[in-house]
Amino acid sequence: MLGTLAGGAMKQGRQGIRHRLALSKAKKTLSLPCKADALGRVDNLTPAFRECIVQFIGSSEFEQFTLQLVIAVSSKKKKMIEALRKTLRESLRLYRTIPEDGVDCIATALFDDLHQSIHASLIAPEGRNGFNPISAKIASAQAAAALRNCEILARIEDLHEYDEFARTFNRQVSLVDSKVRPPQIDTGRKIPIDRIYVQATLVEEGERGEETTGAALPPKEIFGIFPRVAILGDPGGGKSTLASKLCVDFARGKVRGSARVSFKIIVRDFGVHFKSSKMSVVEYIEKMCAADYSTPTPDGCVEYLLLNSRAAVVFDGLDELTDTSLRQDMIRAVEAFCLAYPSAWVMATSRKVGYDLAPLDRDIFDTLELGAFSHDQERTYIKKWFNSMKSGSQHERASLADGFLNELSHANELSRNPLMLGLMCALYRGAGFIPRNRPELYRRCSEFLFERWDSSRGILVEKPFERGIQFAMFALALSMLKNSEGGGLTEKRLIQFATAHLHGRHYEDFDSAQDAARSFVKYCRGRAWVLTDVGTDASGNDLYSFTHRTFLEYFAARQLVRECSDVESLASAIYPKLKVQEWDVVSQLAIQTLDERLEDASNGAVAALIELAENEQDLDAQKSIASFCVRSVEFMDLRPSVLRSIVDFYLRTITPAVNAGKVDYFYVGAADALLKCPRELRDVVVDQMRRTAQLYPEDKNILALVVSLGQRIPWDGDYWIAADQETIEMFSDRMDRLDDQEVWFDVIQYRYGRVPLQHLLDSHGVGALFNSQFWPLGDALGRNLFSDFVYGPEGAGRVRFEDRGKVIRAILNSPRPLCHTLGSHRWIHDDRDALPEDEELLFLVLVNYMLGLDFLGNETFGSVKRPLAGPLGRLYQMIRRARKGEVSSDSLSAQLDMLPAAQVDFITSWAAEGFKLVERHDRSSQT
User: Fold this and answer.
1) Which pLDDT score is estimated for 686?
2) What contacts 890, CB < 8 A, 6 or more positions away?
3) CA 609 to CA 579: how far, in whole Å?
4) Which of 92, 305, 565, 758 has its CA 20 to 30 A from that of 444?
5) Cα separation, 509 vs 486, whole angstroms
6) Nearest-angstrom CA–CA distance, 770 and 776
7) What phi and psi values does residue 799 have, to the nearest 5 degrees?
8) Average pLDDT estimate for 153-173
9) What global pTM score does this model have?
10) Residue 341: what are its φ and ψ, rounded to 5°?
């Protein structure tokens, strides 16, 4: 790929990936003529020398040089252009196979021809080889990087030492990081990551319902599509495992592209050095290579790799810096690093909750969401987990896996999280059951780890003191959370804390308490589960922390309840954290734990949080509390009156947030939790939504949410769709007024059978089929109508296949292009290998393919979408080749003889480039 342009510099909304793929194609069109012309201008080149130059043009150094020259020319930076002329000369010199006496001549010829090619491409007509304007920030960053790179290259005598470092470092990464410790597999035994890793599902931010981007994407493929990417996920969702797998794939040479090495930075560890000494990212990488991988870096090597697109950097765990101000400083440091090294591939991982308070620059980073396990991924992980056990025969391990799968239906929500699924596997193996409640599951897992695991295998471990080990852990966890020490405590600091905790509680004598504290640390160090050593600080002292943040949060929640023994004090303690999107999981667990001790505690706590938020002036704080309370419906036993308060408060925060431009995907998506309420409370949710909507008769945002519950979820769909139908009837007058202004309201009325499709087409044109998913809240809800007509489902709240003929007539008879956007569109990804028997469906399937070729580009769509092997796939390929001019209209017509003449003419005319089906515009200009 043609570099990264600092990740997303050339992104346009959600089409960033498409632009970068187009750039890759543009790079090839630049370099190939350049190669031929340059070689022709240099006299007396032997065949061997010509081959050396061809190899250089295909190198990552030349790829990066081409990118920088594109930016320099397009932004008219003369100093950068001259620096790049020198850079090309130095790069050729270091490319050892090119003779010294030919470097100047070859460099001049290559530079001049490439420079001319870029000029020609920049003045080419729009839509051919032209480039989009480059932002000043990115151009300046590339200019500075080009100058630094020129200086570095001039100092280097030979690249052999750098190449040797890359080989040695990769070998060490492959040895050190290729094994992981899944929850409770045989005493913390590490196993090869490939034996337990299950390929993650990644979805572009705000596009959860769009199947264009949601896929089980192999880690090695991520950077090929997203050179700068933030991966967001739930706690225990597999973010760190994904980061480790990616780096191991790099080390084994499985990642395509120019980068040769990857550096994984554990943010909580780097944060210690960053906070104490403002250590730079490059300095930390150099320290990490020597300390963790016993591979010292040659002088200037890391800079060279980063500047020449030969290294990737993974920042794992931005969320683990619990101090918001420190996290913001770290975000700025990462962004500054990206601008200083615009050619380096960069990935960062973080939890979803709280990320919006300190997000990475979305002009630089794409954002992907790490999805929960699907049913198939769960099964794969479970079988891998039990197969990784050392004990038992293969048949016994398979029987355990089957028994667990049968039991899993009782805990299917928790099982979609990889960490929780692994813990449940361990618990099932030892206890034979799976708790349903999350605090109960955490409690049983921690008890299992502390009290039963060793003894269940006949191992006796001497405890440092008889009682209160867990309470010491609880207090330690809350202290670390409050003091932003999640990255770890030194042994000295840990002993000090444990001594203070034990003195007066278990021991009158200070020295005895201190001795017990030392034993406690030794005991923890020997347990590879809840608390373990995690590295060293800047001075080389060992650091200890919780094996996973989930345990830190669970124990902190337990201690919080021990300190806040009533509803009011707990609500007061967690409110300041929740309103800035901190302590989300801790607060959930604390409320549930208190509810087990005090009757009605969860209801009181939620009501108290809403009361505090009602008096807030800060809209962001109200949004955060509303989102937390709505999500609490999933895991708390709530009274109908409290549930009504939650629904009402949440709906009342929506419109101010929309008007302030502060509606984000996760906030709106929180409404899904309302639909997971107990069956006996579903009527309460629906009734309160209708009541609140009636209180705000001019508020279209509330109405949009209230009438579309059945569009949000696949489970219990019949109930929610029926509720939508009744709600739409109740608000029919308002819906009729709004559908003239908003396509979405007319689409909803069609989905629920209140207006015919022809009314929708007459009122809004054929474009309504393609932009129907954009609802007033600013995000995409479900797929557009056209996708549903192609792939379904059919029925109440969906579409009626009997209307396919009307859709076809609208497509054939409407002006072109048909639309200007295709968000939330379902592309060609099905496994059909036969032509649909239904004539109307076949035409719509082919139009869907043609839309993809128009929207994404012929080469891009052809490379991204897997071609089908059967008759339908062959027809797709013929249409694509016809569009490229490789197949005649007559040949294509002959293959389409099963369709009516008008439909054949439509397809062949489009293939001959007589018109476009889609012309991308901003949403403001949608049809």
Assistant:
1) 94
2) none
3) 10
4) 565
5) 30
6) 16
7) -130, 170
8) 83
9) 0.62
10) -130, 70
